[in-house]
Design a protein that fits this description.
It is built from twelve helices and ten strands. With 346 residues, it is α/β, with parallel strands linked by helices. The structure holds D-xylulose (XUL) and manganese (II) ion.
Length: 346
């Protein structure tokens, strides 16, 4: 195991969500951004992650001057609260111009919009003092295989990444893969895809990834393996821990809620690779359960951090020597039981 170190924590304003789903309206009243920032501070988290329009609402209707003004004001407020901006992500899935995809739309005007919006997102990141851009490529994929040319789509994605890399020589792009939802099939469904496409860009060193536990599970993968894989390349620049019960809609459950052992193995992978030592944050992309009452609105975040820290202790107190002996003896039944007993505690 790597030498023990402490972790820094982060969440986004969307993680204090109001409970709407495709079948029903919000179940909690809308709250202001300031309230959300206040809660983050109250919980003792270190950073906030942003979509571009979390930072500058109605961004498409605003001039560059207005964008700069609002982003700088936000930076002042964050500084005043002692909160860092972890990353900024372009929200490329809301606009009427991204109905048929953003960077991979069949319409060149729409592709142009997606790129311009991404460059403005980079401006915001610069004003907020972060070099990290997260790309969740929500609509880059297909509902209908015959509607797009997959080879051309890869080329268009590389073109878009190259434009962002050329626009600012300091920013780093972290691709957040997800295999489906909203699309049937996404073009970059796994960490392997994200790191492979990085190699086709003009500056592969500045293209890395973000792993979300639930997204890996939706791809039928173990997030712990995704973590080890990305970190073998030195490319895990951010992390969205949460949980997911099988192949359903993206559930964003509290960390460890569906499968404690899978959560334990993610923490073990983070520990053995020294995640966080270069300033990376542990972010929880979790949502309150829809029935959550207002007075319990923060519990999913507090609980996720609590479970994470308990699992760090579990990882650090796991009897590695005994495990090694069982592995050498190929006694996996005993190893299995040892993990179970360790997680259950005395
Ligand atoms: C979607 C998702 C997003 C990204 C940020 O499933 O996880 O919230 O993390 O755009
Ligand atoms: Mn996420």
């Amino acid at each position: 195991m790597a030498k023990a170190h402490s972790y820094k924590f982060c969440f986004g304003p969307w993680n204090l969500s109001e409970g709407q789903d495709p079948y029903g309206p919000p179940t909690r009243p809308a709250q202001s951004f300031d309230w959300k920032l206040e809660q983050l501070k109250k919980l003792g988290f270190d950073a906030m992650m942003f979509h571009d329009d979390d930072a500058v609402p109605d961004i498409d209707g605003k001039s560059d001057t207005q964008l700069r003004k609002e982003a700088r004001e936000l930076k002042k407020r964050l500084d005043g609260a002692g909160i860092a901006a972890e990353m900024v992500a372009p929200r490329l899935w809301f606009s009427p111009l991204t109905i048929d995809g953003a960077y991979t739309s069949n319409d060149p005007k729409c592709r142009q919009y997606a790129i311009e919006r991404s460059l403005r997102c980079i401006d915001i990141a610069r004003y907020l003092g972060t070099d990290l851009i997260v790309l969740w490529l929500a609509r880059e994929g297909t509902y209908l295989r015959e509607s797009k040319n997959g080879r051309r789509s890869v080329e268009l994605l590389v073109e878009a990444l190259d434009k962002m890399l050329a626009y600012d020589r300091k920013i780093r792009l972290a691709i957040e893969p997800k295999p489906n939802e909203p699309m049937d099939h996404a073009y970059l469904p796994t960490i392997g895809h994200a790191l492979a496409i990085a190699q086709l860009t003009r500056d592969p060193k500045r293209v890395g990834c973000l792993i979300e536990s639930a997204h890996a599970m939706l791809a039928g993968l173990d997030p712990a393996d995704e973590i080890d894989f990305a970190m073998a390349f030195g490319k895990l620049w951010s992390l969205h821990l949460n949980d997911q019960n099988g192949l359903k809609f993206d559930q964003d459950k509290p960390f460890g809620s569906a499968n404690l052992r899978v959560a334990f193995n993610q923490v073990r992978a983070l520990e053995r690779n020294g995640y966080g030592k270069n300033g990376e944050y542990v972010c929880f992309d979790v949502h309150p359960f829809r029935p959550t009452k207002v007075e319990h609105w923060l519990a999913h975040l507090e609980n996720s951090r609590r479970t994470f820290l308990r699992l760090v202790q579990k990882a650090r107190t796991f009897n590695e020597k005994a495990a090694k002996a069982l592995i050498a003896d190929r006694n996996y039944a005993a190893l299995d039981q040892m993990v179970i007993e360790h997680l259950m505690g005395r």
